[in-house]
User: What shape does this take?
Amino acid sequence: MRQALSVASECVPLIKTGGLADVVGALPGAMATQDWELRTLLPGYPTVMRQVPRAKQVWKSSDLFGGSARVVAAKIDGLDLLILDAPHLYDRDGTIYLGTNGQDYSDNPERFAALSWVAAELATKGIGDWQPEVLHLHDWQAALTPWYLRAMGGSAGTLLTIHNVAFHGIAPAARLNTLRLPPDGFTSDGFEFWGQINMLKAGIVAADQISTVSPSYAHELTTPEFGMGLDGVLSGRSHDLSGVLNGIDTGVWNPASDPLISTHFKTARGKAKAKAELEKEFGLPAADGPLCIVVSRLTTQKGLDLLLDALPALVDRGGRLAMLGSGDRQLENAWLRAAEEHPHVAVRIGYDEPLSHRMFAGADSVLVPSRFEPCGLTQLYGLRYGAVPVVALTGGLVDTVIPANAAALSAGVATGLQFHPITVDALAHSLIRLCELFDDTSTWTCLQRNGMKHPVGWDNSARDYADIYDRLCSQ
Ligand code: ADP
Assistant: This one.
């Protein structure tokens, strides 16, 4: 097997705030099918360190960005992990990115620059006879690696995967030294961005290859509407930019064996009990319309403010909505108010992985009204569990859902509903259409069946990544 190192700030099952963690956790298994052995380098947050009590030290430093640090190796759930134990950077009281005041830690650039530094050093020096040929870097937290690798004389090929271009990793120019970056890189062709250091841009200009998590988002990234100021740089690298669709771990997300749900099913007909349990759990009345769910971060990206305004279209037709999410305080409060106003709407504020599984199992439909969506995972879980997705026509949602238009319905291939433009009216219209389709039992069954058969695993995407890895090795 050939060797690669995947570098990220989160990874299932150890630590997760979003889809990045699911992907990083599933990638090693997916790439093993392509003869690539991935180790995963992660920061040693306290919750991660607690999960690897007997790990073996494989690297150490007396000064890693202001303190001593070591890397320990451990195996968990088939993952071959390298964990950067640096208490001065990662032993904090808040979440992995935010302090207890809800603000980013002021030293986030250094916290993750250190991760990139160690990735470059491990790749350059190796550990025993382990020496990765490829560094697979995820988002801004790993994006300085190619710069450090260059400075250390390392030869591994680098792939930067952009999971969400909205997050740049910005630092004031005065931190060039503490970030161990070369001053001559602080130019518009380098990592300078409106007078500051932009860590994602640093990776975009310096990585050998760049990918993002769906073909549609790869195209969108090069447009001013979606590129978040980096569209020009990304256009300049369009020959090295590809879109590789995220898959989901179909072993973990399997309605026939999921240990987090009480009723297992192979076809959507078996969902009835899970649906009744979900109604009960959320205190929703039984009704004729579809039981919809949302499982999401509550941010404007996810379009859940649009859904608040479109709710009457659903509840007036007997539809119900169970929502699980957390994030923006104003949105959380607005959703709690909506639940008070509408008996057909129930809201849980928080992050709850087991509950999310029960929700996909019991739902008729999952709603994903995102304003932009690099790939999106919840529509994939929905497909797999017979919860028909209603999605905005953007990014990976375009690439993963086959809309129930006349042609797709008559060809018997539709898997969900897409709406465009991304407005309250268009969303409301698609919710009305959802209720109509739900009433038409044979069409509805067909949608569910198609969705449950739709390939949502890693097979194709693992091959695509293997092609990129191979290209890196021959460069
Ligand atoms: P993003 O990474 O932008 O948040 P994705 O759809 O790619 O969006 O991935 C989100 C992941 O986080 C999914 O696995 C989803 O089920 C999970 N998730 C989001 N919010 C919650 C929550 N409140 N409770 C449990 N799981 C959640």
Summary: The longest strand covers residues 36-43. The longest helix spans residues 108-125.
